[in-house]
Task: inverse folding
């Protein structure tokens, strides 16, 4: 059932997701360090960083539509007859056997 | 980054690295500070007896010391200091051993507890046995050391700023009949 849910992103989307991931976690890390330094509690710094990791995973892990804006442009589907496919496979075999005999 | 698992793995690994760097930054802000503080030590009573040590069949000198201690250690605590381990050390020299160091008393102060020490006529926690019978008439230096136990970074031992010297009496204490 879970295989039916599509989780792909296109390549531009993956780049974007990686950027967001790193920036969000680093931003929350810096914020947590400053808040912890101000309140003199290391636990504040770590909790803020943990919240930042949750936020980052919510933004980058699920395949949001913003990561699918640049889909791969596949070539058009071309109709091929069955005989053509067999001929193409046979001609490939002939060329490989010729090179071996040399 | 092409599947959910790859992205989740990337999030987790990157957050572990950032956690390590936040901890390192915390270590950098605190381990350059000076942790020595003044402490006033006094000796209220010092006598010496000659008794058998527990598992050794030989009589050794036992010093009985009552001391007083005043120190304010509240500003040693910062966001990286988890607890302080204090110990009062007696140091002296004998013909048998060049350096003798005996811990007489120790205390753990956790973050949030009262860090102002004001002890008077405090008896020692541990026995002040000498390695031999050379305590009579000896000059003994008492000093308060502490270890700062941090949340991140190495534990560091703080040396005392001053010490208090006293002389142990020449004769053994006689039990009053």
Result:
């Amino acid at each position: 059932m879970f295989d039916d849910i599509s989780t792909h992103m296109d390549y531009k989307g993956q780049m974007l997701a990686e950027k967001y991931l790193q920036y969000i976690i680093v931003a929350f890390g810096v914020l947590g360090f400053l808040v912890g330094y101000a309140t003199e509690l290391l636990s504040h710094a770590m909790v803020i960083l943990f919240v930042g990791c949750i936020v980052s995973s919510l933004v980058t892990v699920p395949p949001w539509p913003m990561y699918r804006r640049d889909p791969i442009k596949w070539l058009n589907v071309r109709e091929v007859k069955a005989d053509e496919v067999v001929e193409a496979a046979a001609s490939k075999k002939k060329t490989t056997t010729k090179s071996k005999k040399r | 980054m092409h599947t959910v698992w790859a992205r989740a793995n990337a999030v987790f690994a990157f957050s572990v690295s950032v956690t390590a760097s936040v901890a390192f930054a915390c270590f950098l802000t605190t381990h350059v500070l000076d942790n020595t503080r003044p402490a006033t030590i006094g000796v209220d009573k010092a006598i010496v007896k000659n008794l058998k040590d527990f598992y050794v069949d030989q009589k050794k000198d036992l010093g009985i010391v009552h001391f007083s201690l005043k120190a304010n250690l509240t500003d040693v605590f910062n966001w990286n200091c988890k607890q302080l381990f204090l110990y009062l050390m007696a140091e002296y020299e004998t013909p048998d051993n060049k350096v003798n160091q005996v811990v007489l008393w120790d205390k753990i102060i956790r973050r949030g507890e009262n860090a102002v020490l004001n002890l008077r006529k405090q008896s020692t926690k541990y026995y002040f046995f000498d390695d031999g019978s050379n305590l009579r008439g000896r000059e003994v230096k008492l000093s308060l050391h502490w270890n700062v136990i941090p949340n991140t970074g190495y534990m560091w031992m703080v040396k005392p700023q001053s010490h208090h010297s006293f002389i142990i009496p020449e004769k053994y204490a006689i039990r009053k009949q």
In short: The longest strand of chain B covers residues 39-52.
